[in-house]
Amino acid sequence: MPVADAPHHLSLQFEYDTERRARIVERSVRIEVGEIDDDRSTARVDREGRTVAVRIGAADLVALRAGTNTWVRLLDVAETVAEDAETARRS
Question: What is this structure's pTM?
Fold first, then answer.
């Protein structure tokens, strides 16, 4: 089910300090698109400059909430790892 065809949608946008950081986060989570989709929800990840957008589509509100929680956690982990890697690189 394409995101645009789902009856329920949510678009999340995350802005980063640099385009490099946004690219790292986007590439880290993009690989999950299609892997964690199911018959009730799907997602799409895009990046424009310093902004990463995650669009979630779902058949029902429970699936939308679950999909949202999953994608927010994935982005949080990607952000933490990118920040830790940058800190280690500077040390």
Answer: 0.88
